[in-house]
Design goal:
4 copies of one chain form a homotetramer. The first copy, chain A, folds into 2 domains: about 60 residues, Homeodomain-like (Arc Repressor Mutant, subunit A, Orthogonal Bundle); about 150 residues, Tetracycline Repressor, domain 2 (Orthogonal Bundle). Helices cover about 70% and strands about 0% of the residues of chain A. The termini of chain A are far apart. At the A-B interface, helix 6, helix 8 and helix 9 of A face helix 6, helix 8 and helix 9 of B. The structure holds a DNA duplex (21 and 21 nucleotides).
DNA sequence: AATGAATGAGTTTTCATTCAT
DNA sequence: AATGAATGAAAACTCATTCAT
């Protein structure tokens, strides 16, 4: 009714705002209750729109979840690129990777939880969604291991595929525990990141000491 | 069939069988669809019993899940104890821990998935269940790190609490990927176990090379 | 198993006992929860028998209720006859009627509640049961009114049919309130009986004062 | 149709209509089958709405029954006040009370049955509902008895508490019989009301004739 | 006769989705 | 475009009744 007069139509601006509000609310509710237990009406309330409005922006509940996957992972990938740019050394880039991962987590804990838990189950109850973006995100690390091996810094026996999942799993589990822990019990995320990276890097190094 | 003479009534044997069949079916269905999406009627069909029969053995759907958590983790803990018994060296015990973990996974992949995914969400929508048994299972590893530090094998800078979660996350994520991958694409679990343990152990060692 | 050796067969005595125990338990449970909410398993537990046993004595739940109606009303009618026997004067018999009614109530409150509440609704959800015995029980009072009119004690304008229901309703409601009231709040039933009878008799008398 | 200009949205009028239709249908179905046997789907069909719609207006089945109790008893109390207003003499007011009671009954027989039967059981299976409004309705009569005693019209020996329940029970039982009787067998309610009032009033009078 | 485990029809309630306004 | 009331399919759970032991 009282839309800003400067804009034409219900305004692309407004439309985008509303869409974003729905996505943000959905992330929060999905994180709180899990996809299956989340109610559309909760998301609508969180976004300050009517239930039916959500269906003007998304085909259905599943589409809403998939859109979150796609758009948030897209942004995550972009931001990861930025975080690693400027660093050349594979080991430096791995450290930056871990710090970036935990920074995202601390900044958007609800989103982190949705991506971790729901994305992981996606193939299970969403007909046949393939989380390509997640795989890209992970393959960045795998490439770093390859690069490290190429430069002789990382031991040739290391299997990049296996280590990729192990590293991701380690970061992920720590994320989850950090999110689940009560605020006052929370360990220091930065130190945790350093620990994990130290252990992994030392473990993979091609040092004479081995 | 093989009714023991010590048992009376419609046979404790039969009764236990039916209970086990329900639990097994539930594990399978929970693994396939997730707790919320699993239907009691699916579990009943899987167990070869009527829907109502499930309620003779379990108070409700949630009780069924919690029972799985408790009983299976109980057994897991016992078996872990057996697997580590006889080994003295903390590093050997860590290797055995990882091999045990992956062995369970390969033997009971559906159970592994339920324990991993649903336990992760447990505090969220199960009233306020605390997965004590899981914590015990993990603390075994934490103790091994402590022991390794006491014996001087593991570097004193390592934080056992952080490494515990990192290690568990690594094992877990590999488990998940192994389960999710199509049979023909599956990597070799034993080699993966060795890789992970090698990386972690090397990463934590108190070698002069550091 | 260990039935008394003096009796043959599972003994008619035992059988009757068990049947009575079921009826008594049913009366109690029906009184507590109402027919629809009463569970067969509650009745079985109350009677100390297995659920299935009830079906050896009664066709189904409805048959159990109907049997209670029939048998208990039968006995009530007999006992009412005894209570009134020896009294000639219609007014005396009316007083005795009221006292008898309340005496039953105090002695068998659960039964009273079942007969009052469930019998009243009987035609509603039991296919087409007609509570003949209840009608007989009431018609005894109606006859007394007729007799009183014949003897000139009761005013001819009184409609025995209407007064019968009014009188029964009065007794019934007081019964219900007495049963529902907490024990310590209970009014004196005997005095209540006298009050009601006094009011009704005075109200129906063919005195010159009218 | 006749949308008042003061109302907005899908019209408060329409909304109230639907709520009323649900209540009316519920009264009918509860009267026919009793609360426990009544099915939500029957009520929905009776109201011409979908099953789920009922839950937009009432929390659950019990809330629907309790709402009927509260709202209908509220109205009954108001209307009783109107019916007695203008009459000063306690005896006149008692007659008006009885006539009012029967008038309601004839006008809303289904409602009468619900209030009578279900309210009677209310404390039993509805959590711990206390039918305050019913007690108010009855206490009006108790006050009339007191007033009659104060004015010397009613004998001092009469216990207003006892007589209240007796009178209510008498009206109630006649109501019930009138409702249960087939239409062609129905006695004349007005004459019945007069009979009952006559008997009670005469029975309670403080005449010299006593 | 007695048992009580098993059955499955039946009922309440929830909630994603639609559509008239 | 937005709303939110209405829908009705779906699913957990109950319990009278059966029947193998």
């Amino acid at each position: 009714m009282a839309e800003s007069a400067t804009q034409s139509s219900p305004s692309a601006q407004t439309r985008q705002d509303k869409r974003d509000r729905i996505i943000d609310a959905a992330v929060q509710v999905f994180a709180d209750k899990g996809y299956r237990s989340a109610r559309i009406s909760d998301i609508a309330r969180g976004a300050g729109v009517a239930d039916g409005t959500i269906y003007l922006y998304f085909r259905n509940k599943e589409d809403l979840l998939l859109t979150i996957f796609e758009e948030k992972m897209e942004k995550l990938l972009d931001d990861l690129g930025d975080a690693l740019s400027g660093l050349q050394d594979p080991l430096d880039r791995m450290r930056a990777y871990a710090r970036f991962h935990f920074l995202q987590l601390r900044t958007y804990p609800a989103l982190a939880q949705v991506l971790q838990v729901e994305l992981r189950q996606s193939t299970r109850f969403l007909h046949d969604y393939r989380p390509e973006k997640l795989w890209q995100y992970l393959s960045v690390f795998e490439q770093l291991v390859h690069a490290g091996q190429a430069s002789g810094q990382i031991h040739g026996d290391v299997d990049p595929f296996i280590v990729k999942w192990a590293f991701f799993g380690a970061l992920d589990e720590l994320s989850m525990q950090w999110v689940l822990s009560r605020k006052r019990d929370r360990f220091n995320l930065d130190q945790a990141a350093d620990q994990v990276v130290d252990v992994f890097l030392r473990g993979m190094l091609a040092t004479s000491a081995r």
